[in-house]
Automatic annotation (TrEMBL):
Signal peptide: none annotated. This is DNA-binding LacI/PurR family transcriptional regulator. Residues 3-57 form the HTH lacI-type domain. The keyword Transcription applies. Pfam families: LacI, Peripla_BP_3.
Amino acid sequence: MNVTIKDVAKRANVAPSTVSRVIADSPRISEKTKRKVREAMKELGYHPNFIARSLASQTSQVIGIVMPSSADQALQHPFFPEVIRGISKAAHEKKYALQMSTGEKEDEIYEEVIEMLQGRRVDGVILLYSRVNDKLMKYLQQNNFPFVVIGKPHQRAEQITHVDNDNYGIGKEATQYLIGLGHERIAFVGGNETYLVTADRLLGYKEALQEAGLVYRKDYIIYEEFLQKANQEGMRKLLSLGEPPTALVVVDDLMALDVLKLLDEMNLRVPDDISLVSFNNTLLAEMSRPPLTSVDIHIFQLGYEAAKNLIEKIAKPNEPVKRIIIPHKLVKRFSCDYVRK
């Protein structure tokens, strides 16, 4: 038996147009009516056609996910699979599909996303990064296209819905923890310096030092995206200073693993010779040797809230701009110890 919209309408005692609006998940239909229609669809075994649903609602029912770099490279970092898991959960709840950028370089990603938007293949996009002077973010603003940023926008943050952690507070708290263990020579190992998350955590680090009356040293600040053999010069130089640091604040757990490997090569023991705090609290932090003290930024929740708020913006274009701050927690393990004088 071929069940139609009219059959569902009859079972639910509503007009066929109401069934179509429920299929399109129209915000104009009450939750009570939606439940009644969906129950009728389930009882009759009716499954709406995806294309028909998109035409009825004049939407694609697809969210675009924009990576900071090539998908292959980014997905090697444990942050991105976990944040996409959160996005996927919220999208599934509202029956949205996902489309991911696949370009290798920044310009390729930009062109790809522009085609995605102009072809109306997505109803909105989530940027999984926030960098200085990002031309894609400017394009989205200028064309009034629904988007949400994970991270703090570089400019006009009050005009852009974004989901973030208090990265200034996170950097400050991690540094204060090391200061509380007696460390005075604390270095900051950042990632890509064009990302706002790195800049904010550095500001927090600097403030913690100043409040404790400790000297902020530029030779204790390095930026390394990946500590492969070709990129170890900065770290080796830092650890070979006349007064080397006794503790490190490292941008994330993946970088921290590279740091641990380098420290082992240089016969420096963690935490006996040097302490280390990182960020993200991924599974890597728990499995490393020693297990890392790491700040849990609740990555899944960052993705979930970003998708939830984007879908709200798509359904209600006049939805006010929001700044959602996800809480964090310092998880203490065995990569830190009291300083040995």
